[in-house]
Structures are given as C-alpha cells and as structure tokens.
Design a protein that fits this description.
It contains 13 helices and 17 strands. The protein is an alpha/beta fold. α8 packs antiparallel against α9 and α11 packs parallel to α12.
C-alpha cells in the first residue's frame, strides 16, 4: 500500500479524488520501498515523463512541418478549420456575361423595350443610350428549385439543383483591366496576389507532380495580362502556371537531354551546388524554393504528358464533354482537363473562355444576340458535363466550381450609331450582376439576392466581390481575416479589411 492509500485510511475525507492535493502529496511517496514495480512507478510518473515525451514529439512534428514548408512551399498545410472543399475550379467568363440574358430575367424590359429608362443611369465606359433593350432570349424554369435559365444554356439548366445562383453581385470597377484585377485579387490595382495564389499560400497543394495553381489558356489572356494570375508580394512559387495549347503547354519544361538519366545527373549536380551555397550562407528561402521548383519541373515532364493524354477516357466521357463537335471541342477539353487536375490534387484551376474569331469574348458592346449565343454554345455543354462528371465520381462535394465574369451588362442599349458598334449591344455594369457556385459545401438549388425590375442595380442581399472571396476561403477551411502576409508594414489579405461570408448559400 502506498503513502497516499495510508493517508486516505487515516483521513476518510481524503478518499474523495482531489487532483490538486494528490499533486502536492506526490513528494511523500516512497518509490524506493520494496514492492513498488517499474510498471507502477511509470504509471505514477506518466504525467511527468509522458508529458515531456509528448511535448518533444509535437514540437518535432511542428518543426518538421515548418522545415518542409520552407523546402517545399507547396507542401500541404492544415486549414484553420474543417473544410468543405479541397479544390476550386474557376470558370472565368472574361468580358462580362449579361445577367439579364442568362440567369436573371426581367419581364419589364419586354414591356418597355425601346422606351427611355425612368431614372438617371451611372456612367460606365461608353456614353450609351437610355433606351431599354429587352433580352433576345427566352427563359424557362428548371429543376426542383424553379430557377430561371436562358435558352442559351439548355444543358447547364439541368444542373440548377446543384447550383447557388447569386443575382446580387456588385463590384467596384466598370473597366475591364481594373475589374479583372479586382475579381482575381480583391484590388483594382496591378501587383496583388491572385485568389489562386492566396489559396496555395494558405493550403499548399495535394499534387506532388503538378503546380498548385494552373490556368488553362483559351487563346486570349484577359485584359490585365499574366498579373491576373500572379503571386504579387507572396513568394513566386504561388503564382499561376499557364497551360497553353499544344504538345508542350508549358515553356521550358520539354526535356533537351537525350535521356532522363543525363537530365537526372544534371539536376543532382545542381542540387549539390545549391546545397553548398545553403551550407555557407544558411537557409535562404528563395534558393530553397528555386531548388523545389527545379524538382517540380523535372517531375512535371512525365506528369504533364500523362495529364494531357485523354486516350484513357471513355468514348462516353469524351462525348459528354463535347469533344465530338467543333463548337464545343476546345472548351470541352479544358473542362475535362480541369476534372483530371483536381483528381490529381491541384488546388486551384482557372479556365478562360474559348476565343472565337470576330467575337470579343463575352464583351458584347455590339452584336449581343449572336455574340452571346456563340459564346454560350461553346461553354454550355462542357460546363454541364464537368458538373455531372464531378458529381458521378464523388468529386463535386470536395470541389468548388465558380462561374462568372468581372461584371455584368446594362439593360439599356449601346446603339449602332454611337460610332463604336455596328449592331446593338450592352455596356458594362458592375452594379448588379450574376455569378453561380456549385459543389464544395454549397447549398444546391439556391437563388440568392435580387436586382431591380430592370436588372441594373442589386437591391437585396448584395454580395460584394470581397464577400465572394471570403466565402470561397471559408469553404476551403480558411478564415479570411487570418490568412495574412506581412508586406509594406501591414498584414495584407485577399479581402483587405472587408468581406463577409455569405452563409445563406452554404449547405
């Protein structure tokens, strides 16, 4: 019997468990007496030795993770809390699709077509008329949610019960370049990190052989150029990697050596030389990131051809994405590649709309009817296929799909006689437009927010671009107020000092 037991017999009240008194009386235990086994002693000392061991193991694990992050900037990191999504596919509709011709019908435009709009309209880019322009497309209700969808999207209409359609988006800029920067980085100025860069900075990547942030080029980079996908003041490892069309979509990745062994030897020599520099000067983050990038580029030489080879896809899958038709082949291939990328752990994939000769993206200042129809035909079937394919494979619940442009378009007409366009169109409108999200923790079948009767201004449940960014980060397990980077004397973040999570669209 040990000293504590003897003490409890002498004082029955001490038999009531009191951890504080037990700790105080531990020094009275005589571990040297006969009859105390090693097992008993270890049990008595477990809180001491065990705590020390646990602290060492935890510290060692944290130190190893920190060291791994320094050596490999794209190493996976823990989110702030349990995420709903692991990756994002951003279907960026460059140019600005018209909300009142796609997902936000306005019957009043039909009744007052050609009349003057009964309020003063803000200046955007062009000095457009005040004449109301009705949509040239018919709308129908689809799905259990009864969402209104234009005839432009007959295939996508079958997916509305998986989508949250936000009709009350607002942005700060009405000119393409600034608006593109704003949608991508939360700032209308050049040089800020893109949304994809922030996500890979915060979470790393789950792909060992591919970049964490990939942009699939369509033949035309949007206004703003490659800085739309840049890392800004974040380390360069987090910037987007542009995949161009062709056999070798990435510059300087195609091997120049006759065989892989020769290239491996060169890389090993470079690694030893860089290692010598690290030994002499200590840890240099930029150099370690460069070494990591060399290694990634080497692995990509085998991973990228395998990724781009669609021979393993079934004929049914290829047909689903529209690879059998000229109008949908290009964007269908991009959507299929996006699915293959998230399967391989790529964190953020951005798709740009296919370039059609004579059609200025979704930017229909003129030729609205034919331009939007051509753009929609190229994208409708592939995007619907992407959603259905992700869902069938169990990937949609972990993949957040985002669709939208940098702004919407006006309900008033830009007329042919303004010296800029030959056929009627619409000007830019950042005051109320539509985007939709699907998968990755989104409440499907949701229609959120409203614009006025003309579709000009958001009037209910406004969702600012900062709110959109905060919601995307939240779904991936990141608190947008805590995902920061110290730069120029302050803690910078994607949402600046703004942003609220749109919880009404979350599952």
């Amino acid at each position: 019997m040990d000293s504590l037991s003897i003490m409890r017999i002498r004082n029955p009240q001490s038999a009531i468990r009191n951890p504080q008194s037990e700790i105080k009386d531990m020094h009275r235990i005589d571990f040297s007496r006969a009859g105390v086994s090693r097992r008993e002693m270890l049990c008595k000392c477990a809180n001491g030795f065990g705590g020390l061991a646990l602290a060492y193991l935890v510290a060692d694990k944290i130190a190893s993770a920190a060291a791994l992050a320094e050596r490999n900037p794209l190493a996976p990191r823990l989110p702030h809390y349990e995420p709903k999504a692991r990756s994002v596919i951003f279907l960026f509709m460059d140019g600005g699709p018209s909300q009142i011709d796609t997902f936000d019908p306005k019957p009043r435009l039909e009744r007052e077509n050609g009349q003057a709009i009964p309020f003063e309209t803000p200046t955007t880019v062009f000095n457009i008329s005040n004449k109301i322009l009705a949509s040239p497309y018919k709308f129908r209700k689809y799905g259990q949610c009864g969402a209104d969808v234009s005839e432009l999207f007959p295939n996508l209409a079958s997916c509305v019960d998986d989508m949250a359609i936000i009709r009350s988006m607002v942005a700060d800029h009405s000119e393409h370049t600034a608006a593109n920067y704003f949608m991508h980085s939360g700032s209308g100025f050049q040089g800020r990190p893109s949304m994809g860069a922030w996500l890979t900075y915060g979470l790393g990547s789950e792909s060992e052989n591919l970049p964490g942030f990939i942009v699939l080029e369509s033949g035309l980079v949007p206004p703003g150029g490659m800085d739309l996908f840049g890392s800004g003041f974040l380390p360069a490892s987090y910037q987007g990697t542009l995949f161009r069309k062709g056999e070798y979509p990435i510059a300087d990745v195609a091997p120049r050596e006759k065989g892989p062994e020769l290239q491996r030897n060169k890389l090993a020599l470079l690694h030893r030389l860089n290692g010598g520099v690290l030994e002499r000067f200590g840890a240099v983050t930029e150099l370690e990131a460069t070494i990591s990038n060399y290694e990634l580029a080497f692995r990509m030489q085998s991973a990228v051809p395998e990724l781009l080879d669609l021979k393993g896809e079934s004929e049914a899958t290829r047909k689903l994405y529209g690879l059998d038709e000229p109008d949908t082949e290009e964007f269908g291939r991009q959507c299929l590649l996006a699915r293959r990328m998230v399967e391989r752990g790529v964190r953020f994939v951005e798709l740009l709309p296919p370039f059609r000769k004579g059609i200025d993206r979704w930017d229909q200042h003129g030729s609205l009817e034919s331009g939007h129809r051509i753009n929609a035909k190229a994208a409708d079937r592939p995007i619907a296929a992407l959603l259905k394919d992700l869902k069938d494979r169990g990937l949609l619940r972990h993949t957040l799909v985002v669709w939208g442009g940098e702004f919407g378009r006006t309900p008033t007409a830009q007329l042919p006689d303004d010296g800029y366009v030959k056929e009627v169109g619409r000007d830019h409108n950042p005051f109320g437009f539509t985007m939709w999200l699907a998968g990755g923790g989104i409440k499907g079948g949701t229609i959120y927010g409203e614009t006025d009767e003309y579709g000009y201004f958001a009037i209910k449940d406004k969702v600012h671009v900062h709110d959109l960014h905060a919601t995307i980060l939240h779904l991936l397990g990141l608190d947008h107020t805590k995902l920061t980077y110290r730069f120029s004397g302050r803690d910078m973040r994607l949402t600046d000092v703004h942003g609220n999570i749109v919880r009404e669209i979350l599952a």
